[in-house]
Amino acid sequence: MEASAIRNFCIVAHIDHGKSTLADRLLQTTGAVNERTFRAQVLDDMDLERERGITIKASAVRLRYRAADGRPYVLNLIDTPGHVDFSFEVTKSLQACDGTLLVVDATQGVEAQTVANYQLARARGLAVIPVLNKIDLANAQPERVEAEIAHLLQDPGARITRASAKEGKGIEELLERVVREIPPPAGDPAAPLSCLVFDSSYDAYKGVVVFVRLFNGTMRPRMGVTFMGNQQRFEVQELGVLTPRPERVDELRAGEVGYFTANIRHPHDVVAGDTVTDSSRPAAVPLPGFARLKPMVFAGIYPASAQELATLRAAMEKFALTDAAFQFEPEQSDALGQGFRCGFLGLLHMEIVQERLEREYGVDLVLTTPSVVFQVTAHGGKTLEIHRPHDLPAAGTILAIAEPYVRAVILAPAEAVGPLMELAMQKRGVYKSTEYLSETRVTLVFEIPLAEILVDFYDRLKSLTRGYGSFDYELLGYRPAKLVRLDILLNGKICEPLSSIVAKDQAYEKGKALVERLKTLIPRQLFEVAIQAAVGSHIIARESVRPLAKHVTGKCYGGDITRKRKLWERQAEGKKRMKQFGNVEIPQDAFLAVLKI
Predict the structure, then answer these.
(1) In terms of pLDDT, which residue wins out, 548 or 34?
(2) Which of 26-35, 107-116, 248-257 is predicted least confidently?
(3) CA–CA distance from 75 to each of 93, 235, 288, 360 (Å)?
(4) Distance between terminal CA atoms of the chain?
(5) In this structure, are residues 316 and 357 in contact, taking their beta carbons and an 8 Å threshold?
(6) Which residues on adjacent β-strands are paired with residue 169?
(7) Which residues contact 32 (CB under 8 A, 6 or more apart)?
(8) Disulfide check for 211: which of 41, 120, 152, 199 has CB 3.0–4.6 Å away?
(9) Per residue in 515-541, pLDDT tens?
(10) pTM of whole model > 0.85?
(11) Which residues make Cβ contacts (< 8 Å) with residue 255, sequence separation at least 6?
């Protein structure tokens, strides 16, 4: 296929604005799927994606389209996620494309991720085609939303395609705009091979399946290829494209998107963003790739059974292939044994990783309390990165503590400004600016500690705006803060997984709320369980879980009271010994309770 007949584009939008439904209509209109094989969310092939109705992984597919002038085209489409936690998938997709469809819901209007995705596309210099989706809905406001889109694009005369992905309206017009307005890929098929790895997956029979966009050269089966990042060499065994089913091809040329296998057995040999080149005639320099996103949230993942540790390690290595933003390293916990310290982009990302590991690899997991990375300056000027509360040095050895701050952008109805201001102040936010998109829609900008938005910030924002608010953030850097470690003691022993680092002036309220919550979650034992919250050596809150009572004198009928007293004393001694040597059972809900406080 000549490069002039190829168009590489992706679909980006805020979550739930209709990307996957629009991709379904494009597949149907171009004949990539027929009525017999069609199902909703064709490109969302994970059960988890279909159940939650969200896209988690970017998916690539090749479409064949004959334009109105009769000329055939090949369209390489990538459907992307909309949630802020999966913005890394969007970044990867944009790197492999020459243009994008920017989809906006005609009822919701421009939202936080709409702005963030547009800015990413503009920074890459991509052609942007704005699409107003869901015009069929009774509460659609196309004129208002078109004005918001024009304001975002800073182009009052911007041409915006009105469409209904659900009913198939505007799809033909959209395909014509794709072939006319998105430029064909540049590149020389005769030049040395240079292709970008933008995704990968693991197949038990073929090994690692590598998804690439070719910028220069031609790839053929039995060609020797080298990964320029780690200099690993392999021989291409299978080449293909997704239509959306895998379809073998004899070659991939500059400008095309496809996949190859090369009997790669070790998942860590393939890194998203790496450049693949011809071993016999290598490219002079690697492609720019894309910036690796640093995890923002860290938590421990442990197998429920120690025997599953090796299974969990193998599962994580394979999972890291399909999710380049996920990172892990081994760690040891006194309470939970051997496990892994894992990095995530956010709480939804963490939740999805847990569910996918449990479903796809059949391992039962225990997660510890999520935390962010703090920077501590100790005496002597040495700076430490603290990933776990337990690693925080003693207060007397600390000169300063810094925590990560984010620039939070909130788009919401104008009547919710007051409650949102109050919410941001509760979360130690610093107000920066207000901008009115229209008479009814406003953009608020705050600078907030990352640790404060991890927990329930998004849920409360949705509640205060009756579901119409949206939220996006970007990391600003580290700033000084007054923080302390809040420990939870069970019968006098520190329970490391329940510890957290909190603002000094909020320690008492959070400690009190946490012990009260744990009292309801920790099941009653045969001995009393004392739950205490402490900052350093100071106990700031306490609750007790009453022991289970056994009626030891039930068999005594009348008689001398001394016999009953002896039985009660013996029971008390036994419970004292149990309290000394017994382990308190802590359910998974107790670890999650720290999040709710």
Answers:
(1) 548
(2) 26-35
(3) 14, 28, 24, 31
(4) 58
(5) yes
(6) 164
(7) 26, 61, 62, 63, 64, 243, 244
(8) 199
(9) 888 887 777 776 677 888 888 888 888
(10) no
(11) 3, 6, 8, 184, 185, 186, 187, 214, 215
Which ranges in 30-80 belong to alpha helices (H)?
47-52
CATH, domain range 485-596? 3.30.70.2570
**102 phi and psi angles, rounded to 5 deg:** -100, 105
**Can you say whether the dihedral through the CA atoms of 211, 475, 504, 377 is positive or negative?**
positive
226 Cβ contact partners less than 8 Å away, ≥ 6 residues apart: 232, 233, 276, 277, 278, 279, 282
Calculate the alpha carbon distances from 283 to 60, 273, 305, 497 in Å: 25, 16, 48, 49
- DSSP for 319-350, written as a single string: HHHH-TT-EEEEEEETTTEEEEEEEESSHHHH
Contact of 350 with 343, CB cutoff 8 Å: no
Per-residue burial over 171-197, b if 16 or more Cβ lie within 10 Å, else e, is: beebbebbbeebebbebebeeebbbbb
Q: Which residue has the tokens 């013996």?
A: 570
Domain span(s) for CATH 3.40.50.300 in the chain: 3-181
| DSSP E strand boundaries for 169-295 | 194-203, 207-216, 218-219, 224-227, 232-235, 238-242, 246-248, 252-253, 257-261, 275-278
Q: Tokens at residue 162, please?
A: 């009105």
What DSSP element (H or E) covers 35? none
Between strands 218-219 and 224-227, the pairing is unpaired
Residues in CB range of 359: below 8 A, 6 or more apart: 47, 48
Superfamily of domain 297-367: Elongation Factor G (Translational Gtpase), domain 3 (3.30.70.870)
Q: Give residue for tokens 């890459």.
A: 124
Phi and psi at residue 378, to the nearest 5°:
-95, 170
Write the pLDDT tens digit of every residue in 7-27.
Answer: 888 888 877 777 778 888 888
Query: Pairing between strand 194-203 and 207-216?
Result: antiparallel
Match domain 3-181 to its CATH number in 2.60.40.2250, 3.40.50.1820, 3.40.50.620, 3.40.50.300.
Answer: 3.40.50.300
Is the torsion defined by CA of 348, 351, 355, 357 positive or negative? positive
Q: Rounded to a whole number, what is the largest CA-CA distance in the chain?
A: 107
Q: Which two tokens stand for residue 589?
A: 């809900």
Rounded to whole angstroms, how far apart are CA atoms 149 and 478?
A: 33
Length of the chain: 597
- Residue bearing tokens 């008492």: 508
